[in-house]
Amino acid sequence: MPRQAGFTLIESLIAILVFAIGVLGITALLSVSIRSQHHAYARAQAEFLSRALADRMRANPAAVIGGDYNGALPDPAEALPACPCNAATLAKRDLISIARQLAAGLPEGGGEVLCEGGPALSGGPVLAPFDGQCQIELRWRERSQAGLADAGARRFEWVFQPCGGPRSDSV
Questions:
Q1: Cβ proximity of 114 and 159 under 8 Å
Q2: 126 vs 51, which has greater pLDDT?
Q3: In which region does residue 62 sit, left (phi positive, over 0), alpha (psi from -120 to 50) or beta (all else)?
Q4: 3 exposed, middle or buried (CB, 10 Å; 0-12, 13-18, 19+)?
């Protein structure tokens, strides 16, 4: 019986099947990589906006002491208050500006600010510097890759001391 040289049809089909499984694996890995990259982008945007708001709060300690930053972020469609501004109006402008950036950068974005422990907020005399801590919480929704199913709510929380004393930031 003569010896055959080359591939048989079965061997060729098995090689094509192994190659196709490899390509499917690489495609799935690429899909997970893109999704992870988007999650990282959204978290970086949330951190950037939190730090921007914290910097604005540090620049306006009178509004922090007065509790003007406390509460949920306003509707991004709300009109900016006219200036020249007092501390409370400037705080409102800051919150609307951050809410607009959040709505533009993250799907279904929202959030709130809570400052506590300072003299005015705890019923004590209003003295600078504010010795309490503030918490900024930003929330948004992630979408699946196809954009059809909800991949869940995400949130970024940052606690910091806005004015006076040593800076103590935490993520």
A1: no
A2: 51
A3: alpha
A4: exposed
How far apart CA 169 and CA 66 sit, in angstroms, is 21
Tokens at 84, concatenated: 């020249």
Sheet holding 71-72, edge to edge: 71-72, 110-116, 133-143, 150-160
Q: What is the rounded end-to-end Cα distance, in angstroms, of the chain?
A: 75
User: Mean pLDDT, to the nearest integer, of 33-54?
Assistant: 89
Task: Provide the whole-model pTM.
Answer: 0.72
**pLDDT averaged over the chain?**
82
The per-residue DSSP string of the chain comes to -PPP-S--HHHHHHHHHHHHHHHHHHHHHHHHHHHHHHHHHHHHHHHHHHHHHHHHHHH-HHHHHHTTT-EEPPPTTSPPPPSS--HHHHHHHHHHHHHHHHHHHSTT-EEEEEEESSTTTTTS---SSP-SEEEEEEEEEEE-TTSSSEEEEEEEEEEE--SSSS---B-
What residues contact 73, with CB distance under 8 A and at least 6 apart?
95, 98, 99, 102, 110, 111, 112, 113
